Amino acid sequence: MSPSKPYRPNVGVALFNASGRVLIGRRFKDDGPEIVLPGLEWQMPQGGIDEGEDPRQAVMRELWEETGAVSADYLGETDWMTYEFPSHPVPPSHRLAKFRGQRQKWFALRFTGRDDEIDPLTPRNGQPAEFDQWRWERLDRVADLVVPFRRDVYRAVAARFAEFAG
């Protein structure tokens, strides 16, 4: 990606259940520079911060949009981190084409609801569903399940939030 392009402001969600595992979803489509590689379709929920939106509000909105979950308590957050999108032909009209990558702040949240609250298949806020499955996973394993260009960020998130893992 071009270094002249900005990073997209973004939040990530490490949603921990009572056993200390985090929610991950399996992406079911390629999405421009966020291409999904076979066997590496899993990730934690994440999404863009709207203009003027506070990151703490964005993280709750993104959690709801991507999973349906609303029962979550704040545990902590990271400093800002970045990753670059890999080179991938993207039409100029694509929503991510104007960005070189993402600038993210990750939040640790404790899920206080029941598993049946989680429904990633229902579109919300006019956003298409991104995940076709979900599961609880050990935080220290998640970096091995994501596309390579996200792994450094996921390892940093795992180190920062290890105290919340089971």
From TrEMBL:
Q: Name one GO biological process term.
A: ribose phosphate metabolic process
Question: What cofactor does this chain's UniProt record say it requires?
Answer: Mn(2+); a divalent metal cation; Mg(2+)
Looking at the record's lineage, which domain of life comes first?
A: Bacteria
Domain called Nudix hydrolase: residue spans: 6-159
Q: Which UniProt keywords apply?
A: Hydrolase
Q: Which GO terms describe its molecular function?
A: bis(5'-adenosyl)-pentaphosphatase activity; guanosine-3',5'-bis(diphosphate) 3'-diphosphatase activity
Q: What is its EC number?
A: 3.6.1.-
Among Gene3D superfamilies, the record links this protein to: Nucleoside Triphosphate Pyrophosphohydrolase
Q: Fetch the HAMAP family from UniProt.
A: Nudix_RppH
Per the entry, what this protein does is: Accelerates the degradation of transcripts by removing pyrophosphate from the 5'-end of triphosphorylated RNA, leading to a more labile monophosphorylated state that can stimulate subsequent ribonuclease cleavage.
Record-stated family: Belongs to the Nudix hydrolase family. RppH subfamily.
- According to UniProt, the name of this protein is RNA pyrophosphohydrolase
Q: Whose protein is this, by species? A: Bradyrhizobium macuxiense
Q: Which gene encodes it?
A: rppH
